[in-house]
Amino acid sequence: MLIYFRALGESFRFAVNALRNNKTRTFLSLMGVTVGIFSIIGVLAAVDSLEREIKGSLSALDQSTIILCHVSFGPTEVPRWKREQFPLVEYEDFQYLERAVPDTKASTYVLSVPPQTIKYDDVTLENIGVGATTEGWFEIESLQFELGRFFNASESNSGASVVVLGNEIRNKLFGEGVDPRGKKIRMYSRKLTVIGVLEKEGAGFGGDSKDEIVVVPVNLARRIYGDNNRSTFPQIVLLPKENVDDEAYVAQIEQKLRNKRGLKTDEVSNFFINQLKGFTAFIDNIIGFLTGVGWGIGGFALLVGGFGIANIMFVSVKERTNLIGIQKALGAKRRFILFQFLFESILLSIFGGLIGLIMVQGVVWLLDVSKIAGDFEFVLSFDNIFLGLFTTFVIGIIAGIVPAIGASKLDPVEAIRTGM
């Protein structure tokens, strides 16, 4: 075992000498490995960070949650011209499904209304996101409150002039830690009474966060925007009870709504039932595709880098032919010679990979410091670092195995004579 450690140390010295004596050649050869690892690990780090951000934003929602609307969140066979003719889901559809589908744990009707300007005394906030929904949103989103409460069914049904504030909106309007309950803010050219403040959540995917929104009863928004307004993107969100068969539940929703809309058996459903777990699977497919693209881009660079290292090793064998002959004449085994050059190839490859990893970490650090990506957090995980090092290890073995075998098979007499 000691002899292999000595071989490793000797190979390391040879690798360092190769770097010192042939700087340009070695640099150009290792650039392939460096760029390849930078490409692969950079893409994987970005994809992992994106996946973590998206799934973190969806983690508050139950995976069995269903979003019913006029568009599909994933691929669909329905042609675009037909989808554009689909009617919007209406408040009456929501009320009907609440009554007709008994296995529903919670449901809500949501309008994605345009941002608004809100005022309190001499403080004005512009372009503030507004959530217009029913009281069921509280349970579906698992809302947590710092102060107050969510609006109840009576306030929701009547479209009462009440509002729930995100944590940052409260801080900007009234000051940090101030209790705004009972105070009135101006929005939609009317006064709305503050009844609650959501607990601080932090930035979500794409910078979205409940900290920066206000929530009003959906029927208040309906009076302002009306029904059949495509700019409000109406949705019905349903959460089935526990232990309910998902497929049977979805089939029940589809049949009930088809019956309400008077669709015939041969007619396609003019709405989409989007399951959150299906959306998560769709995201996983995209993540897998992006990962494949990263490996494809980096793979070509790694291929070039592998040939570069193999070239270095062939040249190294040629330059040290005389030394190999002397070692074998003194009794060195074939495996000693083989491992000597194989170790050197691996060390060179790992050295190129380490440079690539350092470059990725540098980019991650610059993005974090410069805030170019906003609140999006890039993370170089330990798994990706290990994958990068393991990949360079494999590339080193593949690139060095043929030259190493060739060196180990040299005849000692011929090697000494050739090297003289």
Can you tell me about this structure?
It comes from Dokdonia genika. Pfam families: FtsX, MacB_PCD. It is found in: Cell membrane. Residues 297-412 form the ABC3 transporter permease C-terminal domain. Residues 26-255 form the MacB-like periplasmic core domain. With 420 residues, the chain is an alpha+beta fold. It folds into two domains: 2-57 and 281-419, no CATH class; 87-270, no CATH class. The protein contains 14 helices and eleven strands. It has helices spanning 2-21, 23-58, 80-83, 91-100, 137-140, 153-158, 167-174, 218-225, 246-261, 276-319, 321-329, 334-370, 382-408, 412-419; strands at 66-69, 104-111, 116-120, 123-133, 145-148, 162-165, 184-187, 190-198, 213-217, 235-240, 272-275. Strands 1, 2, 3, 4, 5, 6, 7, 8, 9, 10 and 11 form an eleven-stranded mixed β-sheet that branches. β3 (116-120) and β4 (123-133) form a beta hairpin. The protein is elongated, with a radius of gyration of 32 Å. It starts with a helix and ends with a helix.
